[in-house]
Amino acid sequence: MNGPFDFTLALADDALVAAQRLAEWTTRAPEMEEDIALANIALDQLGAARLLLTYAGELEGAGRDEDALAYLRDDREFRNALLVELPNGDFAVTMAKLLFLAAYQLPLYTALAGCPDERLAAIGAKARKESAYHLDHGALWVKRLGDGTEESHRRMQAAVDHVWPYTHELFVADPAAPVDPATLRPAFDEVVGPVLAEATLTQPGSAWAPAGGRAGVHTEHLGYLLAEMQVLHRAHPGAKW
Amino acid sequence: MYGNDFSAPSGPPNGAPDEVTGGLLGEVEAAEAELRAAAARGRRGGPTPDEDLAAYFAEVVDAEQKIEPRDWMPDAYRRTLIRQIAQHAHSEIIGMQPEGNWISRAPSLKRKAILLAKVQDEAGHGLYLYAAAETLGISRDELVQLLLDGRQKYSSIFNYPTVSWADVGAIGWLVDGAAIVNQVPLCRCSYGPYARAMIRVCKEESFHQRQGYEILHTLAHGTPEQHAMAQDAVDRWWYPSLAMFGPPDGNSTHSAQSMAWKIKRFSNDDLRQRFVDMCVQQAEILGVRIPDAELRWNDERQAYDYTQPDYDELMRVISGDGPCNRERMAHRRAAHADGQWVREAAAAYAAKRAGQKETVAA
């Protein structure tokens, strides 16, 4: 990645795509309380995405606002990590994604809150509080499912095995960035390791580390997500909503 | 959201809007003040040992005092309230589906955030209402099962599809508008927990109506395609919204008893009229046409004459043959069934934790 624009866009796209996926749970969650909780987290991610996209547009200086960036870029121009675009799967997969994303975003936003760029620092200061809640929520469910019933344990382990390889991309080094993601890995491991242990789950050892999202080379899933998200906006060029 | 268009309809008291919801919100506040005043002036003491309980109950209701969960109440009053509050709760939960259908495609990030928050509010309303019903001695699980088994209904308005973005606006303006007209009188319901829940729900509902109005206003003042989208949505949602007030007064089975119990305070037709009168002015400002050639001011009645909705259609939708009844129920049942293993895991985990605590304590 080069420069604050790409960095900001990557964070924005992580949040936006995560929000889009989480919102898919609306009306489908396992409990009514959980429907509300997942919508809350989706709203937090969407809120962070909007702030970050707006700032990215300003950094770029080409007149693109949050909607131009969200709705008028193709998948090759999205910079989110692959983890967030993975389909929701069952509730265990969604909770694995939530835990890992929050365990990355919390130290990221915390570090950002202290960075010299005032705008990013303000966004980080706001978002880290939200990430702390996301982390609690994800960790609690991973423990419940991991140490719940035989079926939930099996599903949760399968979910962790499935999502784990995608965590590596989150920490690919970028020394020029306002916060180098490689520096966040220890904080992630410190949080995730004990949660998995308490959940009676095994941390996967797989060396497979799929990546490409930061360079705009995504899984096949992102194209469908964007097609749905962008269809109405693109059908009415220039319209106000 | 909610209407009187269940299989066994009944409704509640008043409202009088001029702007989007200005007048109605004033009535919610008045109901809240009344509730406080009633609490402050105190209720007469409990019934004496040889007092007739039915007479005591009637005296409390007639004095505009609230019946509370531990009070004696007639079985039929309890049953009526359980049915009504549960159906209202089910309506909130099922009502998330038609609007939830557009969250993923909302045309701007701001609209997406507002819609997501709105659908989330509906889940919250469902939860308060189930909690209010639980004060009457039934559990949420039992009520949810009654919904899933098709033994309790939800507002049939949610059996219509949302086929365009403008439908999200029309639902906010018309369906939430009708719900508010219906619910504002419920803020004065004789059953305390329901009245209090309604005050809270109505305040949030007025935001919902406002956002729907704003969506339609933006569309109606946008491109020709957007204007057409808005008009098409109003054309499709107008009559089903009128039908939310339930059958005409002559055919409404539960109304008289509910009125006497002060659960309901206005007739279906009175509320429908109030809604029509409110919408006419708003439609002009919005720049959309209400699809009724007979709609005109009646100076004598000081109200608008209008065409009644098709009540045969309402009955068909109530009995299960609306465009989306099957899908709405299948969706809810699937979500419930798919979540079973998760709920079981949460219960098993909680039980293990409780067991560990006991072991530590011992």
TrEMBL record, chain A:
Gene Ontology cellular component annotations, sorted alphabetically: cytosol
GO biological process, one term: phenylacetate catabolic process
InterPro entries reported for this sequence: Aromatic_CoA_ox/epox, Ferritin-like, Ferritin-like_SF, PaaA_PaaC, PaaC
Pfam families to which the protein is assigned, alphabetical: PaaA_PaaC (PF05138)
Protein name per its UniProtKB record: Phenylacetate-CoA oxygenase subunit PaaI
Organism of provenance: Micromonospora inaquosa
Lineage: Bacteria, Bacillati, Actinomycetota, Actinomycetes, Micromonosporales
Gene transcribed to yield this protein: paaI
UniProtKB/TrEMBL annotation, chain B:
Protein's name in the database: 1,2-phenylacetyl-CoA epoxidase subunit A
Record's GO cellular component terms: cytosol
Transmembrane segments: none
Species of provenance: Micromonospora inaquosa
Region Disordered, residue ranges: 1-24
SUPFAM superfamilies on file: Ferritin-like (SSF47240)
An example Gene Ontology molecular-function term: phenylacetyl-CoA 1,2-epoxidase activity
PANTHER family hit by this protein: 1,2-PHENYLACETYL-COA EPOXIDASE, SUBUNIT A (PTHR30458:SF2), PHENYLACETIC ACID DEGRADATION PROTEIN PAA (PTHR30458)
